[in-house]
Amino acid sequence: VLFLGCELSARTKSYTFQVDEDDDSDHILALSVVCLTDGAKDECNVVEVVGRNHENQEIAVPVANLKLSCQPLLSLDNFKLQPPVTFRLAAGSGPVHLTGWHQIMHRDDTSFEEDDDLSEEEEEEEELAPIMPAKK
């Protein structure tokens, strides 16, 4: 897992995240927080995610509308995207900071499959013990 961060402003209106086309791994980009940073004006700052739909047509979806006086920060709860994806400041002058994480899953990595094959005994061990009252 790698952490991602970029800043959009009047000078840098967009940022594109892409992976090498020859890479046969699966990539997930999860957007966590979008926030206004030092120097932002009290204006609407609209951040869009630009990607491609199933017909390979470009689509832009607004994901945040930030204003210093009423909503300077937005948590996107790890909004998952598949690269390539572009973040664009559609309105406002920012600066707007975006943070998230990039997970790479190699196709030969079977660790996620092994978790599904737990024996019944192991599953029982994983159950949480009941909550007991505190001792005085």
From TrEMBL:
Gene Ontology molecular function, alphabetical: chromatin binding; histone binding; RNA binding
Domain Nucleoplasmin core: 3-103
Gene: Npm3
Span list, region Disordered: 107-136
Keywords noted in UniProt: Acetylation, Chaperone, Methylation, Nucleus, Phosphoprotein
Compartment list: Nucleus, Nucleolus
Coiled-coil intervals, chain numbering: none
UniProt keyword Phosphoprotein present: yes
BP GO terms, sorted: chromatin remodeling
Gene source species: Jacana jacana (Wattled jacana)
Any one GO CC term of the record: nucleoplasm
Regions of compositional bias (Acidic residues) in chain numbering: 111-128
Keyword field contains Acetylation: yes
Main location class: nucleus
Protein name: Nucleoplasmin-3
SUPFAM superfamilies: Nucleoplasmin-like core domain
